[in-house]
Amino acid sequence: MIPVLLGSDKTHLTVFAGDKHAWPLYMSVGNISSKVRNKPKWRAWALIAYIPIVKFDETRTAVQTAYQARLFHQSLKRVLHPLVEAGLRGTRMIDSRGNQRLCFPRLAAYIADLPEQCLINITGPKVNPSTLARYHDLGDRIKHPARTREWILSEISTICETVDPDNVPAYIKAAKNHGLNGVHQPFWADLPGYEAEICLSPDILHGLHRFWRDHILDWVLEMVGSGEVDKRLRALQPVVGMRHFHSGIHSLAQWTGREDRELQRVLLAVIAGANEVDDKAMACLRAFHDFLYLTQYKSHQDATLRYLHDALDNFHKLKGVFIQNGARRGKKEPIPHFYIPKLANLHLYRDHIIQMGSTPQFSTEVTETYHQEMAKKAYRSTNKKDYEIQMVRRIDRGERIFLMNELLSYQKDTITQNALRQHLMGSVPLYEETLLRLAETAVQQRKTREGQPTVMQPARHQRRTEAKSLTWVSTKPHRSYGSLKEVAKIYKLPDLEQRMEECYRVLDETSNTNPVWLKAHVWHNFHIHLPTVQDDQTLAEAQTVQANPPSNSLPFGRRDCVLIVENDEAEETGLQGEGFIRGLKA
After folding, report:
1. What's the total number of domains in the chain?
2. What is the pLDDT of residues 70-100, one digit of tens each?
3. Residues 6+ apart with CB under 8 A from 114
4. DSSP 263-281
5. Which domain, by its residues, includes 17?
6. What is the pTM of this model?
7. In terms of domains, do 37 and 172 share one?
8. Measured distance CA(360)–CA(101) in Å, rounded
9. 114 and 214 fall within a common domain
């Protein structure tokens, strides 16, 4: 079984002006590890088609939308036609060891935002694409039954018995009563093994972060006041590694997922203590943020899945407070309900994690990243006339060049390794040493550009090296002083000499040197690189810790807080690590 992954997202090609768009369709394979698959440098996603974007000569908006939806499904039906025969009878493929295997590809997941999910499962715009929840059910606390493939095809058959699909206006009206759109031949109808309720993966970027920005943040600003939130954000102390909104959030010209994440880290602390935010509202907001972070775990246990369910249940139980205090508002008046399509999608995350794995690997951030190379750069290389054909040719040419370079590099690596082996055995003349050294240098330079280790080590040793905790400072200190006494006076640390003497004796018990008289070098920051909480084989982003001396602008200096785990024991949730102080001792 070969799990096939698809991803698509419509994107702008022009900047600031123009109406040029592209709709790339990407494909990958679920057998590839998500660590590799979702890194653009490994090129694990392939562009297989550009979905046509056509504007029909139709004045009625509903009919125009139905035509475009039908064109989408007909296009994908043609592109994915090879999967039908291969899925039924199988196709022979060669694995990494050269063995032939009979494989049956299945469309396992389709990564898309909510409008495209509705388009794929042919549902209306105010209907949940993966469950039977209709418009008035979107805010329910419970999850509704799944929208299965059999149910959708049965509803289409029922509609076609009474209405001719060629009569598009009449078909649209009849389909709307069943919660469907104007498509009567979905592309997945002939795909073997397609499961409509599982294939559409919940999305973190649009389904969580964008929902948080469009709704949760708006409710907070309505309660506390936008001016008060900006004032509190400006009052926060800047911390290295975290975004400081020195002008508030209303001055932001453009929002991205990065701004969402940075504001989510501090929002609850910022609004804590505000008179307008009571305990019930704070508990509801905390429950949603717990759910937001739990869904982004890269691995789960029964306990974390239970936390995920409880957090969402608490949010639904308390969300009515935003209607009671008037925070749930439209442009003109309060809204007395929670009929939000993305809100119903929150019920899908837990079940999808159990069936398909962790949610981050199915985020639309992957397709957004590939847009730069596969769409935007390709468009900029054209003359803007008949650009679709030029874009395809440019991408095809780039892929051929990449594969040729890979082949040449592989051959060079093989020749170099064989020559080095023969040289070590004494079968290569000495005058070839220079050529061999140059060839080896070229191979290592290529590996350096690709981010691979240049030293030949066993794979097991490489994994241990990559996951090792790192702590480092700059080569040159920020300040140098004559003695610790001078440092203690400038930095207002009266017990520095005593503490350093105790530390020095612990580190070197055999030495009789008094550290008080040693020359002191001071660094104002150092860097920490630790493994992630969820995966000890992957290093998280490097963090910078600052400790600046007192000054006119900072009378008390600036000291970042650091939590240190001094033993290997941890909670059941998986928080593990080792103190970086011990690394400094070594």
Report:
1. 5
2. 999 999 999 999 999 999 999 999 887 889 9
3. 129, 203, 206, 207, 341, 342, 345
4. HHHHHHHHHTT-TT--HHH
5. 2-202
6. 0.81
7. yes
8. 30
9. no
